[in-house]
Amino acid sequence: xxxxxxxxxxxxxxxxxxxxxxxxxxxxxxxxxxxxxxxxxxxxxxxxxxxxxxxxxxxxxxxxxxxxxxxxxxxxxxxxxxxxxxxxxxxxxxxxxxxxxxxxxxxxxxxxxxxxxxxxxxxxxxxxxxxxxxxxxxxxxxxxxxxxxxxxxxxxxxxxxxxxxxxxxxxxxxxxxxxxxxxxxxxxxxxxxxxxxxx
Length: 199
What we know:
Oligomer: single chain
Number of strands: 0
Low-confidence stretches: 1-13
Shape: elongated
C-alpha cells in the first residue's frame, strides 16, 4: 500500500520536520543566552551557529539575517502583547472606551519596549525604519482606529504615527539612560501628550 501524503492547506503554516523545530529552538535559546550574557553588540549569526552546534547555513536559511533572528527573539513576547490588546481584559482589551484603551495601549507599549529594550534598540538600528514591520503596522492600525473612535475628524493616521514615534526604543533608552527618566515618567508624559490631542 502506498504511503498517504498530506498536502498543506493554502494559507496554513506548513508543518516543520522535528529536527528543524529542534534546531530553531536551539538557535533561539542560544541567542537568548548570548544576549543575556554579552549584550546585543556582539551578536552575530556566525557566533550563534557555532554556539548552537549547527551549520551557519542553517541559521541563515531559517532567519535570513540578523534582523530576522532578532524578530524571532521578540516573537513570543510580541504574541502575548498582541493577544492582550486585541482580546484581553479592559482597559487594554475590548470593553473600555476608546480613549481609555488608547492610553492603556500606549502605556503597555512602553512597558513592552522596556522589557526587551536592548533587543528593540538593536533591531531599530539594523533597519532603516520600524514603520514597515508587521508589529508596527498592527500597532498603527489599532491605535488609529481607537483615535478615530475617540475623536472623530482627527487625522488619526498621522497622530498614530506621531504617538508611536514616542515609543521608539532608541528614544526610550535615551530618556532612561541619559535623562534619568523612569518608565513611569515616560508613560505619564506620553499619556499627557495623548490626552492633549484627544481633548
